[in-house]
Structures are given as structure tokens and as C-alpha cells.
Amino acid sequence: MAVNTTIFMPDLLKKFLYQYPHIKVHQTFATTLNIQHLLETEQVDFGISVTSIISSEYTNIQGIPIITAETFLALPPQHHLLKHKHISLYDVVNEPFVSMPVGYGLREMTDNFCNQAGFKPNIVIESN
User: Fold this and answer.
1) What is the C-alpha to C-alpha distance for residues 18 and 37, in angstroms, rounded to an integer?
2) Can you give the pLDDT at residue 120?
3) DSSP reduced 3-state for 64
């Protein structure tokens, strides 16, 4: 399988392997586009992605939501916005962002949220 998130994978794999102990799992970390390519070329049996993988060319790829999770904004301990009860994305327009590299689901999601709010995030650190 190919994944672009590891946040919930340990718990998911633990439950899966408990239910199916005879199955061996090989997991590889990949970008959303790479997961799509691996699925299209049948190099993996399935992919798990933060964002949807849509293939207009390969109709045998089917998306199934498996989890819904809240997304949070993480701030340093002394940040001035911590005193606010509610923070919108408009409040962080000029703030520096730490994010995943381009091509990963969480980065795609961050960029989409910021674009919907009308700005491009100021990514100062990219790390997977």
C-alpha cells in the first residue's frame, strides 16, 4: 500500500492485522500524485491519502472515505493569537507556516484552505 499520511496508520494497521493476522503489509510513503501512479500501474493494491485521488483515465480506481478528522492550527507557546477564543485563517495571512512539501496530502489541504481564504501561505519550512 502507498500512503501520504502516517497520523492514524499505527492504529489502523494494528486493528487490521489483529483482524487479518495472516496478511503481510508493505507500506510506502508517497505523494498524492505518486500514489495515483502506483495505483494506475498496479504497483500497489491500495492507497491511503489525506486528499482524494481521482483518476479520469483509470476507472478501476475507487475512492472510499475511511476517516474524518478535524484539522487544527498549531501555534508556538507564546504566540499572540493564543489569547483569542476563535482564530480564522484570515488571522494568519502574514504568519510563517511550517508544512509538508508540495505533493503531499496535508500540504495540498493547507494550500486549499488558505486559497479559499484568499491567500497563499508563507511556507518558511517544508518537511515530511
Assistant:
1) 30
2) 94
3) coil
